[in-house]
């Protein structure tokens, strides 16, 4: 069993509190992505799990063993960090074989495991080269191959695909997911790329300001954000927020009335761009279309509801022109109601 328990971890740099009592569990074999904007504390948290940074308080438990005081090499994990350090004096083959040699693996097994890992990362053709002769993206793949070669029970990764072009990134993402699932590796993966987090993770921990705002499956954090921040951070375009006033259990939005989940308060309605559809002419919520962008698979409409910026996606063949007022229908069960004062979702 290699589950990870992070228990009320606090990290301060001088007077700056980078992590504010962060708790998080990753089950054995689970893939958890730490997702959030720059500076929210993702890397710091990963470095604490790895033992590269010491927390001010709190514990890290891996596979039932408190590793809080142990050095990195005694924590029983493999890691790939942003700077993807590879050894310059070793060939790619020896770099990938490094961990296996440390484990005194037989030569035949080293060959087999390096070969498999290299094939997965598409680096077989330069196993004889030295890192100085590789591009940044190729070196990054060597670092990932080296971590995977030892078949670790726990793998920590910090933006391991960040230096790759879009197509290779997508391909490696898919393969990484398959191989980690098959191996049953418990993975914690730092990224600021929501598509990567959504595609890879069993659960996503959305971080903001040194805290975990919400943790859940990709669908949960996307469809039922717990806070305004999470709704606005996930999704492209991000969730729309439309201010409404609730009174006597109802809110008016662009000439229609919706039942309010709470009485008499300033609320915001969170509406996903794909959760509105065009209504028959003369009905629905009035939406003033300002810009129409054909995206191939859909049209992105930017405009306003009650003067508030709103983005909607509709089928690519929809007949809509800039400058028109159209009607929108929404399914009330798909709306997120946010308390305007606290920024928290009301359920
Ligand atoms: P990024 O995606 O940009 O790497 P991140 O979410 O990984 O961001 P961290 O690198 O964990 O963020 O940093 C969290 C906060 O702690 C930032 O405000 C950063 O400036 C600060 N910080 C990190 N390391 C140190 C350090 N060694 N000394 C002082 N402040 C630090």
TrEMBL record:
Highest taxon above the source species: Bacteria
GO CC annotation, single: ATP-binding cassette (ABC) transporter complex, substrate-binding subunit-containing
GO molecular function: ABC-type transporter activity; ATP binding; ATP hydrolysis activity
Keyword Hydrolase: no
Protein name as catalogued: ABC transporter ATP-binding protein
Organism: Microvirga brassicacearum
ABC transporter domain residues: 4-234
Localization per Swiss-Prot or TrEMBL: Cell inner membrane
Membrane topology value: Peripheral membrane protein
Keywords of the record: ATP-binding, Cell membrane, Membrane, Nucleotide-binding, Translocase, Transport
Family from the record: Belongs to the ABC transporter superfamily.
């Amino acid at each position: 069993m290699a589950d990870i328990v992070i228990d009320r971890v606090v990290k301060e740099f001088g007077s700056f509190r980078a992590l504010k009592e962060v708790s998080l569990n990753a089950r054995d074999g689970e893939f958890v992505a730490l997702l959030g904007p720059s500076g929210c504390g993702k890397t710091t948290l990963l470095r604490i799990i790895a033992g590269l940074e010491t927390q001010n308080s709190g514990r890290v438990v891996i596979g039932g063993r408190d590793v809080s005081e142990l050095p990195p090499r005694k924590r029983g994990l493999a890691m790939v960090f942003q700077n993807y350090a590879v050894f310059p004096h070793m060939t790619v083959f020896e770099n990938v074989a490094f961990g296996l040699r440390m484990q005194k693996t037989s030569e035949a097994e080293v060959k087999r495991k390096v070969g498999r890992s290299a094939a997965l990362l598409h680096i077989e053709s330069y196993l004889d080269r030295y890192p100085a002769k590789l591009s940044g993206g190729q070196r990054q793949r060597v670092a990932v191959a080296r971590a995977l070669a030892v078949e670790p029970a726990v793998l920590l990764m910090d933006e391991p695909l960040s230096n790759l072009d879009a197509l290779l990134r997508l391909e490696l993402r898919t393969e990484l997911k398959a191989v980690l699932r098959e191996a049953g590796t418990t993975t914690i993966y730092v990224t600021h790329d929501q598509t990567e987090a959504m595609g890879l993770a069993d659960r996503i921990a959305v971080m903001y300001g040194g805290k975990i705002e919400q943790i859940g499956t990709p669908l949960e954090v996307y469809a039922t954000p717990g806070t305004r921040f999470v709704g606005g951070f996930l999704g492209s375009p991000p969730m729309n927020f439309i201010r409404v006033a609730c009174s006597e259990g109802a809110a008016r939005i662009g000439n229609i009335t919706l039942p309010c989940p709470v009485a008499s308060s300033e609320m915001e309605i969170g509406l996903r761009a794909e959760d509105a559809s065009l209504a028959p002419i003369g009905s629905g919520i009035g939406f003033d279309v300002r810009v129409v962008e054909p995206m191939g698979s859909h049209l992105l409409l930017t405009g306003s509801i009650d003067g508030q910026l709103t983005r909607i996606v509709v089928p690519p063949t929809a007949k809509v022109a800039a400058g028109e007022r159209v009607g929108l229908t929404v399914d009330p069960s798909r709306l997120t109601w946010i308390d305007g004062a606290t920024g928290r979702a009301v359920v």
